[in-house]
């Protein structure tokens, strides 16, 4: 039997609340067409709203409390298999084009080749001066704490990087390959810096609407850490840039999908095309930006799958997880199953069923700053239309939201619906691993210090896989610039 070719198109930080197919507020014709041609999971969630942990869970099918990966400094242990290893065992070429935010010497974790590097630092000791030189005025705005300090329309390193990744992917797909292919094309947009193409930025600046929750208070000190004291103008500008990047991302998704379709037609193979992201972006809700909470826009992700023998124009509204992607792909290809993982196969849903009957859950270790130990374990359960959130170190604060009736999660139903609150609370207690999560993360934090010291002693060898070809023209402020530091 001929094995199907697979292409996974992945963005970074795209909440489906800004899209055509779900949010109805951003032009995404390629994604809309993908929904029409395949199956869209409207209730897909990340297991951890942060890049490295979520991507590790995507690849391994394991939750962060089992991988020990909760921070941007963590790495998948070398002896932990990913779903890519199972595909390689079956005869696949597994190809990475772009970013996966791997940290350390192992930049593969099951990929047999890489055809485009990463934009993020991929070692523990990347020289700060080197970053400042390559990113120019954008250097601070790549960090979550400073993400609203440079907003606007014009040239940006992210746009150049994503174009580089797409061209590498298209060039690869234009070549003949003997083995069945699993190609992952992973872009950086719409991750901050919040700078989109000028024309698209102006388009969405006219449409931008201040979130209804913009002035809402944050109910716990844990969540209050993420509030940024920004003006309405900055919030509207960030939203405009975010939507501009999403429309540009959509254009690139369409370009890659067309190249993949041509590739499969030439080979005469069956195929699967999947779109997802690692987490979302709050984009001004409660004056929060980026990720790191379990509010909807941070935790919900797009998940659309189309291809041979996959139901068309099919919508699945039962909760699913980013951890389910690997098991589903292995089931689709007939590969060996991954044992003892936390994800499950969604193959029934791809064939027209309603999906698996399970809840989605997520866990996150909240830290006061990147240098401190874990101090609060946050947990989420999504069951049907209801989402439950709690904080291990702040048990008095629990939240229950009806995400259909109240998508901005402004009405806490924890007292209003006591039976549903008790049910979701019991589910959370069944899945929570607070003590194990903190213990294993402290173990990882100690190890990270050793790896940093070792890297300093022998030199950084993996940085050669990082993309640094940022043009001089986009190391300065974009043509339209809203920032707390300057106003151009």
Q: Overview of this structure, please?
A:
With 488 residues, the chain is an alpha/beta fold. The chain is 33% helix and 17% strand. The chain contains 14 helices and 18 strands. The strands form four sheets. An eight-stranded mixed beta sheet has the order 5-4-7-1-9-11-2-12. The chain has a four-stranded antiparallel beta sheet with strand order 14-15-16-17. Strands 10-3-13 form a three-stranded mixed beta sheet. α4 packs parallel to α11, α6 runs parallel beside α9 and α7 (198-207) crosses α9.
List the helices and strands and how they pair.
Elements: E1 5-11, H1 29-37, E2 38-41, E3 44-45, H2 51-60, H3 64-67, H4 83-90, E4 93-98, E5 113-116, H5 128-135, E6 151-153, H6 157-173, E7 181-186, E8 194-196, H7 198-207, H8 221-224, H9 232-267, E9 271-277, H10 296-299, E10 300-301, E11 303-307, E12 314-316, E13 320-321, H11 325-333, H12 347-350, E14 360-366, E15 376-383, E16 386-391, E17 398-402, H13 418-431, H14 434-458, E18 480-482
Parallel strand pairs: 1-7, 1-9, 2-12, 3-13, 4-5, 4-7, 6-8
Antiparallel strand pairs: 2-11, 3-10, 6-18, 9-11, 14-15, 15-16, 16-17
Record keyword descriptors for this entry:
single chain, 488 residues, alpha/beta, 8-stranded mixed β-sheet
Low-pLDDT regions: none
Secondary structure category = alpha/beta
Work out the helix count: 14
Q: Calculate the mean pLDDT score and round it.
A: 93
Helical fraction equals 25-40%
Taking the alpha carbons of the first and last residues, their distance comes to 60 Å
Largest sheet: 8 strands, mixed
> Which descriptor suits the 3D outline?
globular
Number of strands: 18
Instruction: Give Rg in angstroms.
Output: 21 Å
Strand order of the largest sheet: 5-4-7-1-9-11-2-12
Strand content: 15-25%
